[in-house]
Design brief:
2 domains; 8-stranded mixed beta sheet; Protein-Tyrosine Phosphatase, Chain A; UDP-N-acetylmuramoyl-L-alanine:D-glutamate ligase; 6-stranded mixed beta sheet; 15 helices; alpha/beta
Amino acid sequence: MHFDTLKDWLHWQEGLHPQSIDLGLHRAKKVFHALNPEKKQPITITVAGTNGKGSTVAFLEAIYRAQGLKVGSYTSPHILKYNERIKINGLPVSDDTLCNAFERIEAVRNETSLSYFEFSTLAALDIFSRADLDIQLLEVGLGGRLDTVNIIDSDAAIITSICIDHTDWLGDTRTAIAIEKSGVFRQHCPAIVGDIDPPTSLIDCAQKIKAQLLLINHNFSYEKSVNSWNWQCHGKNLAKLPLPNLKGEHQYRNASCSLMAIESLQDKIPVSDSAIQTGLKNAYISGRFQLIKTENSAPILLDVSHNPHAAQALLDYLNTEFSKLPVYAIFNMMSDKDMQSVVTLMQPKIKHWYISPVNNPRTNKEIDTKNIFKKSNIKHISTGYSNFSSTFQSAKKAADNNQGLLVIFGSFFLVSEYLAQISEKMDT
């Protein structure tokens, strides 16, 4: 199979495999070994977790780049362009680079059926194997044990948090979910956990395979002061660190996990204290507490929070940073997410909700969304919009008129819609 454009390749991949999510390693392993029979790979850090994966990768990427190293990062989903998933030194790879990787995958896969995500992960690994990297950072897409990223034996693994999400695939308890996520751990390798109350099942899994378990608030910790923070682990102390460029209390935990991984790999890939300071100040990721200010207009806050744990972090941030502003929300979620819990949690903070349509078959139906808001006894809700643009116009007008804050959250797709709208205006 051959296609001339990235768009055509992606369209074909979407229909190639019968299931959009099909966890398992055997298909990808088979193709990866055909692609890369010598199995050479750079130093690898795998990042799993319910929330915080992308931010943790961003901290690692910024710090290693500040050290002058060549860094590959693989994350998902993308916000605007597919290319964002695969970056080298912070820059998305080109359409041609992706198409060439897809050509190589197609040439060796034979009859092996691959999902959209498996194609993406294999392309990232193939591109990275040819890029002479110093280190590659791999974000798990779903779970850990059976996620395609896990075909690689990492030098260190991070689990940022363990919350109830993706229950159809990972289980409906933290105990079960922790077992799935701990599948990224490897024998005798650092297994870093940023969850402040990890289930015993995770600890048992790490001990069973003799991973080097490193728990936040036990093996490493942090403490904040007014304009800086300190980080420490078994005799190592980093004092007066700059505040993380990514905002929110949870980012201290994500940054701490990143520093623990870096410290654990110092013998393989040394990093200076100055590079750590620079990286903490420069780390950036779209759609996470991303504040956009324009003159004579209400500020806009973008956040891709799509489960109760992430929504709690957003609520804490709003209460800390925007306690005096009325908050208006453009909101929607996928039907496989716990919308009821998110809405109930955010209800006290949101003055008015604007439900935007999302062009995705997984989106909640409007009637189901209305019933969820009815259960929470929320009356300040506007629905019936034809597209994101009309939703945005109504919500922005209300926020502007009442000198409030407009928050766009609940789905990657909503944040993507807004950023695409900005991008179009800049291009014209």
